[in-house]
Amino acid sequence: IVSKGAAILSNSIQQIAGERDLRQQALQRHNHEFSMLKILIQNRETDLHRFITIQNALPREILSIEQQLDDKQIISFDGRLKWKIADFQSKLYDARSERQRSIYSPEFYSSKTGYKICSRLFLNGINDARNTHMSIYFILMPHEYDAILEWPFHFKVKFSLINKDNQHHFVNFFWPDINSICFQRPRLQMNEGYGFENFISLEEFQQKQDQYIQDDTIFIEIEIDFISKPPENWSDSGQRLMEDEQHIDTIDGDIMQRALFSMHN
């Protein structure tokens, strides 16, 4: 009887041990499945956060694309560009924080077969004009008809800020220094810029900003004068753009910005 009871007890113990092992294995499977589920939830949360970020940025990216398309569709061929600078406050903030100190205008032309040009604007100034003035520069770009044009470029260039009544303020102009590399036939993507460090006083602009900012937009006109001639003993006030290497832009060149830049060029 004792022997039979011991055998029954031994079988019971083995059965209990087997059930325990099965439960441990099941628990391990559940723990593994829980860990995988936790990772899956974390990945979904990451994907959701990324989606929300993209969704929030999408309207601004669409607006930027629309503006780029507008720039490509409205091209001037008469040597005059009325440059629309939208999102002005955002661009001014980027310039002050040195995320993006300068912006480029759309390209324009003196004629269908003429000079190809753009302008570069530092909304918070550059070099000695930083924090006191806007700085602006005229830039020649290579064009397929350059071989039949007059070089060096020698025509009067005028910059002006346009107020809400379409009147020109802060007018500055120069006749090119024909010995400067800025006005020779372009061999690279862009020539060096030439213009004015002290184009617009920021203090004076801010005092009268209601005259110039409409719907967070300002307008600057760049005009080439093919008729006027420089007076004798003319002393030009323009300057070659000298980059300040101690101050560089810190804005991230994301995929969208690079795509827009490629499209624009």
From TrEMBL:
SUPFAM superfamilies: TRAF domain-like
Residue intervals of the MATH domain: 78-224
Top-level taxonomic group: Eukaryota
Gene Ontology process terms (BP): regulation of canonical NF-kappaB signal transduction
InterPro entries in UniProt: MATH/TRAF_dom (IPR002083), TRAF-like (IPR008974), TRAF1-6_MATH_dom (IPR049342)
Protein's UniProt name: MATH domain-containing protein
Species of the source: Adineta steineri
